[in-house]
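Incident log, support desk, overnight shift.

02:14 A customer reports that sequence design results differ from what the structure should imply. Their input is reproduced verbatim below. On-call engineer (initials T.W.) acknowledged and began investigating.
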C-alpha cells in the first residue's frame, strides 16, 4: 500500500531546467527523510539530495548551486528543482523515503523517472 510515484522527467537541452515531483502515499510522510537518487548509464546509483523531516537539506557536490530539494508535508510531496542542467545529469532519478531511526520502519523507493539532457 506504501507507494512513491515520480513525475516531471523528460528531455531538456543543456542549461535548461526541470522540476521533478514525488508523491507519497501510505506512509506518515512527516517522519521520513526524503531523498532523490540518480543512476546514469553505466554508473552506480548515487545520492543527489535529501531533506529531513525538519527540512534540513544536503546536496551532492556535483549539483550544489543548481538543484534545490523541498517538501510539502500537507501534500505528501517532495520536489527537486533542477536548473542549469548538464549532459552529465542524464540519469534515471529515484525518489526515496527513509524513516526516522526511532520509527524502525521500512525504506521505500519510487519506480524512477528518466531525465535526459541533450542538445
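02:41 Re-run completed on a clean worker. Output:
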Amino acid at each position: 500500500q506504501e507507494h512513491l510515484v515520480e513525475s516531471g522527467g523528460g528531455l531538456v537541452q543543456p542549461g535548461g531546467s526541470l522540476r521533478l515531483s514525488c508523491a507519497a502515499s501510505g506512509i506518515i510522510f512527516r517522519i521520513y527523510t526524503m531523498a532523490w537518487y540518480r543512476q546514469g548509464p553505466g554508473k552506480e546509483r548515487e545520492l543527489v539530495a535529501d531533506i529531513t523531516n525538519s527540512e534540513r537539506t544536503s546536496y551532492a557536490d556535483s549539483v550544489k548551486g543548481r538543484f534545490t530539494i523541498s517538501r510539502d508535508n500537507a501534500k505528501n510531496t517532495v520536489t527537486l528543482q533542477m536548473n542549469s542542467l548538464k549532459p552529465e545529469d542524464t540519469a534515471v532519478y529515484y525518489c526515496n523515503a527513509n524513516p526516522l531511526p526511532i520509527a524502525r520502519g521500512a525504506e521505500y523507493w519510487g519506480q524512477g523517472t528518466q531525465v535526459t539532457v541533450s542538445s
